[in-house]
Specification:
Elements lengths: L4 E2 L4 E6 L5 E7 L9 H11 L16 E3 L3 E2 L2 E2 L4 E6 L21 H8 L15 H15 L4 E9 L2 E2 L7 H4 L9 H16 L6 E8 L13 H10 L4 E6 L10 H4 L3 E4 L2 E4 L7 E2 L2 E2 L4 E7 L9 E4 L5 E4 L10 H27 L1
Antiparallel strand pairs: 1-2, 2-3, 3-7, 4-7, 5-6, 8-9, 8-10, 10-16, 11-16, 12-13, 14-15, 17-18
Helix pairs in contact: 1-3, 1-8, 3-8, 6-8
């Protein structure tokens, strides 16, 4: 199986399956001398961890990370950093009844078609469990970016219910289980998601990630555009179905003068009067906030009976049991933050390598 490594100079290779002994990653290209310990990583893993409210999967994983290599006396050495997270609450028996069935919306059929074999226990390699390793790598990426750059995310829509941007409050994001910046919307989502879960169904959502304090000049024209790499990073997240940068698809209904971000000089520096470009012009960061949104589909695992086929070519019905998120977009917020941080760290190192 190929395609398990992401990045150019800051490279992340992940390994492990949902119901295997452990998951982990190797992070290569980290400069030496950066202060790093397990707690620097754990704080972000705790934000993604399942079972923290009734609105997420009740799988009880502590997600404690171990640093296996690349750190000595509290600082990075420049060697590859090995990270390991043990799976402690896998219940493989939940999947015994569907081992020969292809669940709609999952990668069961495509994995079988490509490899001739699949790990039916929670999806194996295709499971969103793998994203814990991305969050761990993202914590290291933030160390490379330094304290002047911040990467934050929020859930801005659940199902048909968007936030009211006039009520946007970043502090509110940490006060509710949805990473929602609108306290009123969070209340609406609570009742909505309870109804979805009781109906044996699921719903999708939109995650918005914002990187502030990113210097101008990251990225390169043509194939190594910063926005192209951001889009690839975000769409690689399980259940992702769409990515937009800045105004995104709304730009279609705007005129050129409306969409262009006009400029003025203030205190000897170039400033922009709007940010429809999402902080990227010609594939290169402009110094504005980098803004991206990620559409995440409804969780494929539902208890509603659905039509499918099995490995023997027979028409059957399937009901997916086990512990699943009624809205996987909730825990997608820290994952999207991590992937944006990884892209920015990679491009920062690439910029320094070329431009000093």
């Amino acid at each position: 199986m190929t395609g398990n490594t992401f990045g150019s100079l800051f490279r992340v290779a992940t390994f492990g399956e949902s119901h295997g002994p452990a998951i982990g990653c190797v992070v290569d290209g980290v400069p030496p001398g950066i202060e790093l310990d397990e707690e620097d990583i754990q704080v972000y893993l705790d934000r993604r961890r399942p079972g923290q409210s009734r609105h997420t999967s009740q799988r009880r994983e502590p997600d404690r990370v171990r640093i296996l290599s690349g750190v000595f006396e509290g600082r990075t050495t420049g060697a590859p950093i090995g990270l390991l997270i043990v799976n402690e609450d896998a219940r493989s028996k939940d999947y015994g009844a569907i081992k020969d069935l292809f669940r709609p919306g999952h990668a069961d059929y495509t994995y079988h078609a490509k490899y001739g074999v699949r790990d039916y226990r929670g999806g194996g390699r295709s499971s969103a469990r793998e994203t814990a390793t991305r969050v761990a790598a993202g914590a290291i990426a933030r160390k490379i970016l330094g304290p002047s750059a911040t990467v934050r995310g929020a859930l801005v829509q659940m199902g048909p219910h968007p936030v009211d941007r006039d009520r946007w409050d970043w502090n509110e994001v940490e006060r509710n289980p949805f990473w929602c910046p609108d306290a009123v919307a969070a209340k609406t989502w609570e009742d909505f998601l309870d109804d979805v879960r009781k109906a044996g169904s699921s719903t999708g959502g939109v995650v918005e990630v914002v990187a502030s304090g990113v210097p101008a000049g990251l990225g390169a024209p043509v194939f190594d555009r910063l926005d192209a790499d951001i889009a690839k990073a975000l769409i690689s997240i399980p259940a992702a179905k769409g990515v937009e940068i800045g105004a995104g698809f709304a730009a279609v209904s705007m005129s050129g003068p409306e969409h262009n971000d006009e400029m003025r000089m203030r205190d000897g520096a170039v400033t922009f009067l709007s940010n429809n470009a999402g902080g990227v012009l010609g594939g290169i960061s402009s110094g504005q906030d980098i803004v991206a949104r990620l559409a995440i589909k409804p969780t494929s695992s539902v208890s509603t009976p659905q039509r499918t086929v099995n490995v023997h070519g027979e028409d059957v019905q399937v009901v997916t049991t086990g512990r699943h998120d009624p809205c996987v977009a909730i825990r997608g917020v820290p994952v999207a933050e991590a992937m944006l941080a990884c892209v920015l760290a990679d491009h920062l190192l690439r910029h320094k390598a070329q431009c000093g």
